[in-house]
Every structure is written in C-alpha cells, then in structure tokens.
Amino acid sequence: MRLDAPGLAQVVHRPGLGERRSKAWFLENSRSFRRTLLMRRDGARLHAGSTPTGDLDRIRRKMAFLVSSGVPERDAQMAMLAASRFTVGCVLEEQADTGAPDGEDLPDDFPVIAHEEAFEAGLALILGGLDQRSAAPGRTSGAPSPT
User: Fold this and answer.
1) CA end-to-end span of the chain, whole Å?
2) DSSP string, the chain
C-alpha cells in the first residue's frame, strides 16, 4: 500500500449498520488510523496540522453513523476530533521513541507502559466519556450543543 506524503491516506473501516456496533466501530476507526500512521516513518508528523477537505464525504458518513447511533451531533464531532488528535499524539510519541530509557536514569517506581497499552487505555477513557455524555439527562440525539 502506498501512502502519499502530505495527504497520508487513511485506511478506515466504514461504519457498519446497527446501534450496537457504534462503540466497536469507534474503537476500530481509531485503531485503523493509528496503524496507518505507523506504516510510514514520521506518519504522525506528516498528518499533524492537515485539514481533510478532500475527504469530507467520508467524514460526513462517519458523523451520520454516530448520530444515528444516538450520539448528539456536537459530541460526535468532539469525540472524533479528540480521538484523532489523541491518536496522532500517541503515534508521534511512539515514532519519537528511540528505545527503552536507560534504567539507571529512572526512579525505581517509574511506570513503564507500552505504547499500545497506553493507546488502548486512552481510547477507553474517550469512549467512556462519550458514553457518559450521550447518556446524560436532557441530551437529545442529533441536537448540536451550543457553542
């Protein structure tokens, strides 16, 4: 698979049908984005700061899927943005990691957490926050939050 530099193509699973699949889709969408960024040296740096104007139809389909699954529109937008930026940041850190730090320089109680483990934990926190927002009393599906 060839990835073009400034536009760094993103291999993404299209949203499936059914409300029960929205969480699994959200997680897999972020994982797929991470894998794609990791496929190219400095993939996160190439992607950072880009605006996906050439891919708006795909983004609109993703948003429509989340909204149809019961996620308020503004929350869906913010969740996708947060997950995207979180993913780019994680990959940037992972690609900058030149190896395990010298144990002599770290305190004994310094936690060593693998990149994938940290990524999955962060995704779970984002999804948990999205679940709380979507289940909050008074929230209506599809209604944008005031800005």
Assistant:
1) 40
2) ----TTT-----PPP-SSGGGHHHHHHHHHHHHHHHHHTSTTHHHHHTT---GGGHHHHHHHHHHHHHTT--HHHHHHHHHHHHHHHHHHHHHHHH--SPPPGGGS-TT-----HHHHHHHHHHHHHHHHHHHHHSTT--TTPPPP-
Q: Which amino acid is at 37?
A: L
pTM for the complete prediction? 0.74
User: Each residue of 54-105: pLDDT tens digit?
Assistant: 778 888 888 888 888 888 889 888 999 999 999 999 999 999 987 766 556 7
Q: Which two tokens stand for residue 147?
A: 């800005």
Angstrom distance (rounded) from CA 60 to CA 14: 11
Task: Report in angstroms the alpha-carbon separations of 30 from 90, 102, 112, 138.
Answer: 11, 31, 23, 28
The distance of Cα 91 from the centroid of its chain, to the nearest Å, equals: 11
